[in-house]
Amino acid sequence: xxxxxxxxxxxxxxxxxxxxxxxxxxxxxxxxxxxxxxxxxxxxxxxxxxxxxxxxxxxxxxxxxxxxxxxxxxxxxxxxxxxxxxxxxxxxxxxxxxxxxxxxxxxxxxxxxxxxxxxxxxxxxxxxxxxxxxxxxxxxxxxxxxxxxxxxxxxxxxxxxxxxxxxxxxxxxxxxxxxxxxxxxxxxxxxxxxxxxxxxxxxxxxxxxxxxxxxxxxxxxxxxxxxxxxxxxxxxxxxxxxxxxxxxxxxxxxxxxxxx
Length: 260
Prior knowledge:
Layout: H1 6-41, H2 60-89, H3 102-126, H4 132-137, H5 156-163, H6 165-172, H7 177-194, H8 214-223, H9 234-239, H10 246-259
């Protein structure tokens, strides 16, 4: 006797097909966003006057490693997103989304940003602690002078810790999957720019704005035990993990950028 009825088997096959389709679509969208942003924002000249780390670029060997690993890691993110979407849409797990309107879209997008920033901060801070750092996060921090392709250069276990949000958010947020897609594309673009090594933030990231800057994450790669968040500086300020020279250096980097 088959362990599944014909109806159950049909539902399973439909779920597998749906997961595969969403995985491929999401992967291609993320790869396009990543490659396009990297092409626009990756500095080619180590001597350009607005470099946050003047005279330094990532080594060609590390750049090749980071590019390959990032391309692989995107596939894992796409699969996790697709699994969340499948369980949400095919098995009806999680909260029902708000009735679609401009207000609900904006509120759910902002809510997801705040939720992901909280998730990212605490997970990121966790994997900087012993014993997690050595076997989870050390790979990513071999790039002390990061490049745009350093953004998703992480091992599988690191990817699970940080990026599983995109699977779980389908269940604990009343959000349309399409809004979650938009948030992930936004996160991909801003995360890539955040590793560019040149400050692009302008007035949007100048304190008292809570928005993250390139300086914020560049300091994290240089000084290691600071600046853990990804969208906002709120958690870092509240928990005392913002680098003490963050605001001054950010303003200086913005000044040099405006003069270049």
